[in-house]
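Appendix B, example 12.
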Amino acid sequence: MTEDHPTLAVLAQFDPRDMEASAHLFADDAVWHYSNPNLPELQGDHVGPAGIRAFFAALADKSHDTFRIEPVSATPVGPELVVVQSHNTLTLKDRMVIVDVVVVWRIVAGQIAEVWDIVPGQPMEVRDATHRE
């Protein structure tokens, strides 16, 4: 992986917890494809910076602001694509859910044009949200 790859530089600026600050990273017609059989109400295509911002606001609301992303790897593929594996956590209905996720990003002319966010149907772990390690 080349750390100074231009697509990685764009992704390094992305903060899903501050979509106002990240909005400029998205093309006007950007599409965020979200696939998560455990959150069917959020599945589908979220279009444009406003639609993507609304998606993350709904995810924050659903998880009571507990949604966290821990990137595991980011691999550029050619000039436009990046494949990211992340370890995500969120609390749903008093249960902490831990999932490994794959996200494919397409970045064109320095802006995010399309994202495929693929969440498996079976989480890695589910535990009582009050559990302490």
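Helices lie at 6-12, 19-22, 48-62. The longest strand covers residues 95-108.
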